[in-house]
Design a protein that fits this description.
- By secondary structure, this protein is mainly alpha-helical.
- The protein has one domain.
- Helices cover about 60% and strands about 0% of the residues.
Length: about 60
């Protein structure tokens, strides 16, 4: 098995709590969910539009 690396993600307290609760509801560790989502992104099955996100954040402020 290849050596695994750690990845740190900064989240607001509110978002971290929501992620923990949702992962618990699914009965899955957060790390497994993140690995799965990253795999989907790398395979081109998930598109991420950071420009759209930034525009939405600007509108919310």
């Amino acid at each position: 098995m290849p050596r695994e690396r750690k990845l740190m993600v900064r989240l607001t307290e509110e978002k971290h709590r929501a992620v923990r609760v949702r992962a618990a509801e699914l009965g899955q560790p957060i790390s497994e969910i993140v690995r799965y989502l990253l795999d989907l992104w790398l395979e081109g099955k998930v598109e991420i539009n950071l420009t759209e996100r930034e525009e939405k954040e600007e509108q919310d402020n």
